[in-house]
Amino acid sequence: MSIEISGVNKNFGDFVALEGIDLSIPTGQLTALLGPSGGGKSTLLRIIAGLEDADSGRVEIEGVDATRLPAQKRNVGFVFQHYAAFKHMTVARNIAFGLEIRKRPKAEIAAKVDEMLELVHLGQFRDRLPSQLSGGQRQRMALARALAIEPTVLLLDEPFGALDAKVRKELRDWLRRLHDEVHVTTVFVTHDQEEALEVADSIVVINDGRIEQVGSPDELYDSPATDFVLSFLGPVTQLGGLQLRPHDIDVALEPLPGAVPGRISRSTRIGFEVRLEVTPTEGQQPPVQVTVTRAEARGLHLQHGDEVWLTPTAGAQAIRPANAPASTLDGAATHGYSVTHVSG
Question: Which pTM value belongs to this model?
């Protein structure tokens, strides 16, 4: 394992930032620390980097006990959200900085700077100042500077948070391709669920200083271990006492055995999606949020006020919290979906 974290605890006064953190991150993997603001993910990243000391516990990097090692001796590259660029230095000098303070030979530094500029596609900007670059280009420069020292581990603290949505999406794609090329063990912090699901090999969901679940994007999205993971990794709605994703609900225009009847109370088109709010017509059930494609909505001629019948999609993963009563929709054999029980 590249990074082993055992029994890490961290308090800031009376505030518990991390409690009982045990985590293994394999060599060469791109891992996301995902959670809400204040959940502890950035604190954990800074402890791995050596920028923060744990109150107790152990951090091991590539078999070396790094718990008490200063940051500069951990061979870790760190990229901040706001680039932390040296404004008076050119792009090339920014990239060279870490090598210069390590007193590497000038020829080696020049070769590595050329290599990094080509890797991040900034060769034509080598003599520009950071202020002359776009936000996305500055972040690529920051990544090149971190990679230039050939770190054992690359750590990124919300690296795309300061960028607009379009540039963020482009850089996510670029980071995934870059990681597949250089294969350095990478850990990045994000509160953006889509970012974690799209980029990471593995996701660590952290909330209130504790790890809620660790797994692949598919595992966490399809088989959440807790209510928090279920709700944090995407939209959730209720149907007949079960919780499931809005896109995992089938809409029918005729009654079906066990289906929940309702009436479309709202319809909103967002690009290729149509989002429906369906108010159940039996019992005191909350409105159900349903997402269908534009083509499905057109094919069914769905309109505001239409009566419809709802069932979980075949193969869907429906969730019933452990304290929830049984539902008429629990019949997996009948409807072709499965029910998972999760804790709070």
Answer: 0.83
